[in-house]
Amino acid sequence: LERRNFVHAGNILASQRLMRWQPGAHVGIGTNNTLYALEDGIVSTETFKVITKLPTGTVLYKTFINIVPNKQEGKFKLVGMF
Q1: Residue 55 is part of which domain span?
Q2: Among the four residues 37, 39, 68, 70, which has the most C-beta atoms within 10 Å?
Q3: How far is residue 8's CA from residue 42's CA, in Å, rounded to a whole number?
Q4: Residue 27: Cβ-neighbour burial (10 angstroms; 0-12, 13-18, 19+)
Q5: What is the DSSP letter of 63?
Q6: 75 lies in a domain?
């Protein structure tokens, strides 16, 4: 898993046994916790502090893997109007 790399739809981003990384925008998760890209685009990661009922002073972070999709180039086609 490397940030700022271009990936195609269906590429495996991370294979994991436990949930080390969470799926974010445009990322799917397989039955064995494998994360894969749903869109063509660039990989980005974000880490957030999670507030839980853990003992005082304990901090829990979650890392999300996102795909920033490419810009769509005028592929819109008007089929009909109501």
Answers
A1: 6-69
A2: 37
A3: 9
A4: buried
A5: E
A6: no
* Per-residue pLDDT reduced to its tens digit, 54-73: 888 888 899 999 999 988 77
What are the DSSP E strand ranges found in 1-82?
A: 6-7, 12-14, 21-23, 27-29, 35-37, 41-50, 60-69
Is 34 part of any domain?
yes
Whether the full predicted model's pTM is greater than 0.90, yes or no, is no
Q: How far apart are CA 39 and CA 34, in angstroms?
A: 16
Beta strands at 35-37 and 41-50: parallel, antiparallel or unpaired:
unpaired
56 assigned to some structural domain: yes
CATH assignment of the domain containing 65: 2.40.50.100
Residue 13 maps to a domain: yes
Q: How does 13-22 read in b/e, with b if 16+ C-beta sit within 10 Å? A: bbeeeeeebe
